[in-house]
Amino acid sequence: MNFSLSSLLAPDTASVEHLAALAEGLGAAVDQVAQLMGASTATTDEIDAGLQDIDSAATARHMALMTSLRSSYITPLPRQDLYLMADGLNNAVEKVCNAGLLIMATEQFRLPPEAMDILENLGRQAELLEEAVTQFRDLDALEETWIQLQRNSKRAERVMVEWVSGMTGDLLQRSYNRQREAAHAVDAAIVAVRQITVHVGSILVQES
C-alpha cells in the first residue's frame, strides 16, 4: 500500500467534525428548551427525553474528540485549544439542558418575553459557533464570526438584566422564587457560551 507524504501530513479533520456536532447539539438543546414556552406538563415527556439524548450525545462527542486528538499526528489547531473548545461546548450544552430540566421541574412555562429573546440569541450563537469551527484556516472569517458572537453575548446579558430587574412584587413569592431559579439557570447557559467566545478570541490572538 502506498502512502503519500501529503496525506500523512494532512491535518486530522475528525476533531473539527466533533466540534461542529457539539455546536449543532447546542442549537438543538436551545430549540428543545424554546419548545417549553407555552407547553404544559402533559407535553414535556418528549422534550425531557430529547434533552437527555442531546446531553448524552454531547458527552460522547467530547470523549470521541479526546480519543481523536490522542491518535492524531497533525491537528488544525494546538490540541489544547481543540480540547478547550470541545469542553466549553459540552458544558454549554449541559447548562442549556439543565435550564430546560429546571423549567420543567418548576413548571415555569409562562416565562416573560425576555426568556424567549435570550433563547433565540443562544440559538444564533450556536449557529455562529458551528461556523467558527470550520474557519480555523481563515482567520479573517473567524474574526468576523467572533465579533458577531461578542455582540450577541452582550445582548443576551443585557436582556437577562432586563428580565431579572423586571421581576416585581406583583408575583407571588413562590412564583417569584421559581422564576428567579429559571433565570439563574438560563444565565448559566449565557455564561458558558460567553466563555467559548472568549476562547475563540484567544485562538485568534494566538494564531495571528
Automatic annotation (TrEMBL):
Keywords: Coiled coil. InterPro entries: PhoU-like_sf (IPR038078), UPF0111_domain (IPR052912). Residues 119-159 form a coiled coil. The keyword Coiled coil applies. PANTHER family: UPF0111 PROTEIN YKAA. This is Nuclease PIN. It comes from Citricoccus nitrophenolicus.
